[in-house]
Amino acid sequence: MNMLRRISVIGLLLAFGLIAAACGGDDESSDTTEGTVPPLETTTAAPTTEAPAATTEAPEETTTTAAPEEEFDLVAAVYEYESTIPEGWMNVGDTVAFKDAVEASDALVIDVRQPEEYAEGHIPGAVNIPLRELGANVDKIPTDRQVFVYCKSGYRAGLAVSSLRMMGYDNALSYSGSWLAWTEAGEEVSTEAVEAEAVGDPGFEPELVAAVDGWLSTIPEGWLTAGDVEAVKTAHDAGAFLLDVRTPGEYAEGYILDATNIELRTITENMDQIPKDAAVVVYCKSGFRASLSMPVLGVLGFDNAKAFTGSYQAWVEAGEEVTSG
Asked: pTM value?
């Protein structure tokens, strides 16, 4: 291990506690326990002094048939990701904790906003890889270094971290406070562009990367948002399917009338409950888990889904009808 790698590992260890303490979203605690790898067992073969028996028979001819390559299963790959989303929802929302974690781990910070937004001002040291171009730039995103993503308000950051994690970047986290929280806190800003350095092929499943890139690169204007409370009410009245991706416990305490509860981590297991011939509006508590859900639904083929970014909080604050049970 070279010196830079040692520094990186030490930095990650220092940042681990900071990130674990700060990770949280929609009132769920962070699960930061990692498994340990047991040492490999070693065995020593007993020595032998017997000479091998001589043989005069010609060896039998053997033929081998190469096993057919296993067909890639996209649904299984998506399930592998979303069913193992950790507590804390891959997010650091607090600005101070984010700043401390970046400094302690020498993290790569990716601004996923559009180039013109980045040019107007960004977090110092952040590189710009627009959301739609993440899949085409995996050679610039490291796997052995902490990675943070942010946008303007946190929604696109949710789309980004969910997409990166699905591809295989288990070192990626979101700073959901994003640019608005950073500037409101009076933190330093920069207009000096930073080029993303090539780090090589991450070695992920090519078909999975292609599927995620195919979804990311075709996100339309509006970023697949469903609009405000009035827009969601109109969609609901027109027959939209309301998908609540919170936990069953949250749903039982109160939900938008007629909404169906399918927790984020179980979407692939319940695909048959989600229509493809009607509009789908996804919501959670504050909007972040709804953003995490969008890449899952999109890669699975639900191009009829949009996220209600205000989600349950906005609905309740507007005095709209809810039910429970």
From this structure: 0.81
